Amino acid sequence: MAESAMQAMIEDNDALARLIGRRVRYLDEEYEVTDLLPEEGLMILSSDDGCDVQEDSYGRAHRLVPKRQNLKFRDAEGNPSSIWDELSFLDGPLLR
Length: 96
Fold this sequence. Notes:
Helix content is 18%, strand content 43%. By secondary structure, the protein is an alpha+beta fold.
């Protein structure tokens, strides 16, 4: 993907919102994009396969939650981060 197209997409909140629900492969595991936090530059991925134990406010194991990855999708200068090279979208190309 052209760098300029990627830069335009990460600056467009509507384009980013369209990524929610898309299936991706990251670190050889399948995830779904479940949330985007544009102000923080974070993409949240959740796994169907693995579960993590979430602790309550006292540090006690409380419940199972989907395994998550919180990825920075832009760097400090506002440019696309390296995660875009590591993600593969399972339902087709990122920009159509």
